[in-house]
Amino acid sequence: MHARLVTDAAPRPTPEPFSIHRPGMLEAARAEIGLQPHALRTLRNAMYKHGVPPRDALALLPPRAATSILEHVALHTLDEVQRRNSSSDGATKLGLRTRTGLILETVVLRIRSGRSAVCVSAQVGCAARCEFCATGQMAIVRNLAAEEIVEQVAVAGQILRAEGRRLRNVVFMGMGEPMHNRAAVEEAVALLIDPAWFALSPQHVLISTVGIVDELRRFVARFPHINLALSLHAARPEVRARLMPHLRQPSLHDLRVALREIQEVRRRPMMIEYLLLDGINDSDDDRDALIEYCRDLDVHLNLIPYNPIANAPWLRPSPAARGEAFAAALKAAGFTVTTRFSLGTDIAAACGQLVPSSVGV
Ligand code: SAH
Fold first, then answer.
1. For residue 146, which of 175, 118, 187 has the smallest C-alpha distance?
2. Cβ of residue 304 lying under 6 Å from some atom of ligand 1
3. Distance CA 255, CA 214 (A)
4. Does 351 participate in catalysis according to the annotation?
5. Rounded to an integer, what distance in angstroms lies between the CA atom of residue 76 and that of residue 16?
6. Please, which residues bridge with residue 305 across strands?
7. CA atoms within 13 A on the CB side of 37
8. 329-343 pLDDT, tens per residue?
């Protein structure tokens, strides 16, 4: 099946074998390090719950244990190579470099005073290659390892803590398709909601996917309480095929069958993401098809204004009035509808704009 091929085609990550973010790593070396269980708890609470940078967290331990940890594990798997703050809103885009020299992007979102989120990448590049997405245009480079995903969250937590804020939400809406890298995403999600690690509420973790249904079924079986968003963007097959030409499977029909099964397992609403593109998926027919498609699904519709990207000059955002009418019609049909407000457009940090060539290194 196509989804399988794509997954296999993504080069395997080259994980940092001694990352401090690997579960069991510190436990395995505990006797040698002389690290007491309560000291390990102190260290993890500081790093993952309170956004303390690893070196400062080590300073909370007895000096011998701290020195010994430095000999056994690597504190970082990513190096920050760029930080850009939006001048118009609360977004900060980070360029992070992997051990092998690849750059990925992570976006810190300050939504309201004290309430903050991080948008993390699951891959460098993306095999889904949607027409409207800058990350897709670079195709897939490689999957990220779990510790590389976890570190993006840890770094965001550190930045926010330094401002007196707290990281509340993690959204997998950065570079890559999370369900093409399910194993690493699952490892990372497990740590995000683990009370001994980040201790985030599952309701504050959101995975957005193009709908790789076999992988999604497996993910939902393990994590039924994690929030899900599906990038639908069109409910007419020919329109979806045009916007997402590399996603040959599943068909819209099979996707819907899978969504209903998934709904049975989760028993909570799923977000349906729908990009509004002028003259492409915003007609009355598109709207009616969307209403029909979602009629028996437990969904919340999230309309996304298109953020223009380079190399796709034929795509334009729907005029605001069209978007408002679209939203009003969906509401009138009984759906919960929200329109996304993307932060970070001025620093190319908004949805679909992440591509590391914008990092000047
Ligand atoms: N691979 C995941 C995460 C992608 S980013 C997925 O496809 O769901 C999160 C959302 O931003 C997706 O719904 C994606 O389709 C959307 N997006 C991509 N390019 C965009 C653009 N140029 N403008 C606005 N939203 C975009």
1. 187
2. yes
3. 10
4. yes
5. 9
6. 276
7. 1
8. 999 999 999 999 888
The preferred substitution site among 230, 231, 274, 340 for testing ligand 1, maximizing ligand atoms within 8 Å of CB, is: 231
Residue 159 Cβ < 6 Å to ligand 1: no
CA-to-CA distance for 84 and 107, rounded, in angstroms?
A: 10
pLDDT at 316 over 50: yes
Q: Could you report the per-residue pLDDT of 80-100, keeping only the tens digit for each?
A: 999 999 988 899 999 999 998
Hey, what are 183's tokens?
């194993």
Considering only CA atoms, give the Rg of the chain: 21
d(CA 153, CA 187): 13
Q: What is the DSSP string of 122-155?
A: SEEE-SS--TT-HHHHT-EEEEPPHHHHHHHHHH
pTM: 0.94
- In 118-234, alpha helices (H): 134-137, 146-162, 182-193, 213-222
Q: What is the DSSP string of 296-357?
A: TS-EEEEEEE----TT-TT--BPPHHHHHHHHHHHHHTT-EEEE---S-GGGT-STT---GG
C-alpha 127: how far from its chain's center? 15
Q: Do residues 350 and 312 touch, judged by C-beta distance below 8 A?
A: no
> Which residues, listed in sequence order, are joined to residue 112 by a DSSP beta bridge?
115
